[in-house]
Specification:
alpha+beta; Aminopeptidase; 2 domains; 12-stranded mixed beta sheet; two-stranded antiparallel ribbon
Length: 288
């Protein structure tokens, strides 16, 4: 008999019994958190044995990010993952107030990308991830940019750069979403915005934690390699965050293909995987 249901902390041992051949599985490390709202983890059982998982997390009450896709190796190649993810996607679409459902995966993970498109999600956005421990080499002799203090001014920049053109915004490391006003609620006091002296550029910096501390840097233009004062500003924020955290902090970038094309040959960043965001809007689903 085959069943799909929500998992709880009581299913932890069942999860550990799955054969996945993963050396390190972050789901096992944070299983209790991933089975508590706003995180939802579903399990596919066959004759009482857990053979696969998939789930989603809700961000800002309107965005659901699918993930946590695992299939026991003994059941791979049987379309189990697509069946489970499709079911989980349909469950997410029933969430009150949700406007978008999607998933993010590495570009080289062809099986996962097939599962995502097979469940009805279209490719939405591609970006290259990069991080650096030190960025001193990127600085110049120009002055730092001026901080923006008012929420109104921050919203004006977000409107112009992301909301009006319909761009994807890197909300967290590994979690980009289509920009919308709800994405930024209760966040703008914490995030720091800096405007250059010509008032035609802005950079956003904000703290993140993904197993370690990151200073996420958001800059949508293609001149990030040679814009006067930009990296001085980021460097100052990086040093301040390291002091505040009393710990190592990495600078994090999400780079488009256009930005990668003009990135300098000599730089302190380590390039990680390229990621593909998949998604679909669900404004009108089940809301007739």
């Amino acid at each position: 008999m085959s069943t799909i249901r929500l998992l709880t902390i009581e299913d932890y041992d069942q999860y550990l019994s799955m054969v996945t051949h993963l050396e390190r599985d972050y789901i096992a490390d944070v299983f209790e958190r991933l089975t508590s709202p706003p995180h939802y983890l579903y399990g596919h059982f066959v004759d009482g044995e857990l053979i696969g998982t998939a789930g989603y997390s809700i961000f800002q009450d309107e965005y659901a990010m699918l993930g946590r896709l695992r299939t026991d190796v003994r059941w791979r190649g049987k379309s189990m993952a697509r069946h489970l993810l499709t079911y989980v996607k349909e469950q997410a679409e029933q969430e009150e107030g949700l406007t978008w459902v999607g998933a993010n995966t590495e570009s080289q993970n062809t099986p996962a990308r097939r599962v995502l498109t097979g469940s009805g999600l279209k490719e939405w956005h591609a970006f290259q991830t990069a991080s650096a421990e030190q960025i001193d080499a990127m600085t110049d002799r120009h002055t730092e940019w001026m901080p923006i203090h008012t929420v109104e001014e921050k919203i004006q920049w977000l409107d112009r750069l992301y909301i009006e053109p319909g761009r994807v915004f890197p909300f967290e490391c590994y979690y980009p979403f289509p920009a919308g006003y709800s994405l930024f609620k209760n966040k703008l006091q914490e995030w720091r915005f800096f405007e250059n002296h010509d008032k035609d550029r802005v950079v956003i910096t904000k703290p993140d934690w993904k197993g370690r501390h990151f200073l996420q840097v958001i800059y949508p233009w293609n001149d990030l390699a040679d814009r006067p004062g930009l990296w001085n500003t980021v460097h100052a924020q990086h040093q301040q965050m390291k002091q505040d955290m009393e710990d190592e902090v990495l600078v994090w970038l999400d780079l488009t293909d256009e930005q990668m094309a003009v990135f300098p040959d000599v730089h302190p960043f380590t390039f990680h995987s390229k990621w593909i965001l998949h998604g679909t809007r669900i404004h009108d689903i089940n809301r007739v």
